[in-house]
Amino acid sequence: MCRNKIKQVFTVTIAHNQVKLQKPEWIRVKAPVSPTYHETVALIKDHKLHTVCEEAACPNIGECWSKKHATMMILGDVCTRACAFCNIKTGRPDLLDPHEPERVGSAVAKLGLAHVVITSVDRDDLDDGGAHHFAEVIRQIRLQAPQTTIEVLTPDFLRKPGALEIVVAARPDVYNHNLETVPRLYGSVRPGARYFHSLRLLDNVKRIDPTMFTKSGIMVGLGETKPEVHQVMDDLRAAGVDFMTIGQYLQPTPKHHPVMDFITPAEFDSYASMARGKGFLMVSASPLTRSSYHAGDDFNKLKQARSTL
């Protein structure tokens, strides 16, 4: 490519990044005011826990916390990666807190959760990527809140042999790992990850335990095309994934990847219809869909869908 063309492409890219798209009406949410929301805030702080709801600036925090639904984030609040879509801090994490699993179990019990989602930062600095910590959190929840079903949303455990097996052996009810975007955009959106490694991880969960529900999600509005999204659906089905989520990407700060497009509710409906046609047991696709949004209700629907097969 000649120098003039390079300059032209660069100029167009910068110009696009400087023009911030206005959020459409369907993406706006109300500020949290519920007393239960503030009770949940207090409980999380009292237990010295982190939540992805806060760290990732989730737009659904008001609704979820008003229902005492919170996605616990373990392994600290500092990530070893720097994904272009994520608002979680990046740097050198602290040592693991050995008492964190017990506090998570206590918080789940006090919240009286029927279903809980446990996620984490990436911990590439740990030999097992944090897998043993995940397993201990699951054990503590089973001990302190035995009626609660457990969904894990794990990192990819890249170059951590045996890590996946440790988490699966702890028997979560749902194993979730998000692909986040289409393979073409991994270099700019998720540079520390590998698309086909993530697919293999999901496939291996089913190979280890065919009865375990698996789940994965992507964001749209990052610059992907519809055929690319359809191909991701096919890839996930080939890996035996049961549940797919699709939500609108929202730019956390001006330093993060720009929103390239706001996908309309009608387009989300079209994606959902396509995914159901490809054989997923469950599909959640809407502008405000996130991995753990309505996770408890969706888990019940997931079990019902399998029972009718």
TrEMBL record:
SMART domains with a match to the protein in the record: Elp3
Known pathway: Protein modification; protein lipoylation via endogenous pathway; protein N(6)-(lipoyl)lysine from octanoyl-[acyl-carrier-protein]: step 2/2
Domain of life of the organism encoding this protein: Bacteria
Cofactor: [4Fe-4S] cluster
EC number, as in UniProt: 2.8.1.8
Recorded GO MF terms: 4 iron, 4 sulfur cluster binding; lipoate synthase activity; metal ion binding
Keywords: 4Fe-4S, Cytoplasm, Iron, Iron-sulfur, Metal-binding, S-adenosyl-L-methionine, Transferase
SUPFAM superfamilies named in the record: Radical SAM enzymes
Tagged with keyword Iron-sulfur: yes
Radical SAM core domain ranges (all copies): 65-281
Gene3D superfamilies tied to this protein: Aldolase class I (3.20.20.70)
Protein family (similarity comment): Belongs to the radical SAM superfamily. Lipoyl synthase family.
Protein name per its UniProtKB record: Lipoyl synthase
Origin species: Candidatus Finniella inopinata
Gene: lipA
